[in-house]
Amino acid sequence: MKSFYQILEQLGGSRSKFSLENRIFNIACITLSALALFATIINVILQVNIALTLLTTVSVIIFTLFFYFTRYKNKFNSVYIPFLLLINIFAGILWFLNGGTHGPIAFGYMLLVVIAVIIGKRRDQVFLVSLIIVMLFFLFFIEYNYPLSIIGYEDDKTRFFDYTSTLILFIFLTSIIVRALKKNYDEERKLTSISKKGLKNSLNYANKIQNALINSNELTTFFNDSFIISIPQNIVSGDFYWIKKVGRKKIVVVADSTGQGILGGILSIYGISILNEIISSVSEIEANIILNKFRNTLNETFHNNNLENSYGNLDVAICIFDENNQYLQHSGVGNPLYLIRENDIKRLDVDRLSKSFNGKTTAYSNTEIQLKNNDVIYLSTDGYINQPGGAEKKKFMSKQFKELLLSIHTLPMAEQKELLISKFDEWKTNENEQIDDVLIIGIKI
Question: What is the DSSP string of 359-411?
């Protein structure tokens, strides 16, 4: 057997067909109609003035008509403002017929404001509430200056029963509206929770795919003294690395694609597939050749699908280590390379021919460095240096990052990794959310 509240909610309409505002409006109309009918009966029993009884009777008919047009004719957007204006006028008439400030109509105006805010569109709310306030000031003014215009009660007993019964009815109606809001909130929260869980599961699965394509063990296989730090902002990272050995050359790529989460993850997976294809097709392993082909393939793919701006400022650093000749070849755009040698740190400037990876530019160039034992190489995206934090909530910045690398570069690489992570966590603290993916690779020669 359905409860009274369930019957009201059914009269309000289904979630799939009616908005929350429409459902509350329907419930308010049918409830006000029932309350007006009850008030008419009370007025007859208490033998109050005939004008008040006629007004409540007319209210029953009007509220029922409003309910019919919104519930069964889908006219909510057309009738809710006339409905509120009409109630405002009815309440004003009732003010004079039912004791003014000594009667219960003030409770009706309080409820009217609540209904106007809940069902009114944002652009209409200020107008509706202002109109109610203006009406109240008008009623106060008339009652104060013309007290005889107010029809009072014949005795205190009649006022008591009318006042208490009306208050109870308005409390009842308010509870119905609040219950409808609470139920809608609980249902929306449940749906949001289900959506978040589904999204998180999808991200976790995407992260597994991404990790399967990016084998972090390859770095320590090719470089005994090395580390990788990857801290996604949202499970799946838009920053990605790619490591490959071709003959005597070891290739390390660090890239920062636009966006985090799903978008960044898709671009990173696509970027890895492009790099695999390039390496299998080129005859000459050069950093700038790989970078140019990588850029051209991306541009061609996104241009053909009218998605030229979908990957924005893609930052890439490509390093090729020649183990026989012990030299490093570097080509990149956006992502820097840091070299520490004999307690001195240098940042290798990347190509500035194009601020955007998908812009028009000439071919990228190479920078070659003869490596020495104990040289330390760091490749990093901008997530670490751009993270706000500290007492003043400023960005970490490149200068402080270089100082940090210089202070730890003599330590074992595993210890450096832990210190960089702990410093990052300490910098952002709980008050500053991580704003970007973080990726750092460290290699000691």
Answer: S-------EEEE--TT-EEEEE-TTTTT-EETTTTEE--HHHHHHHHHHHTTS
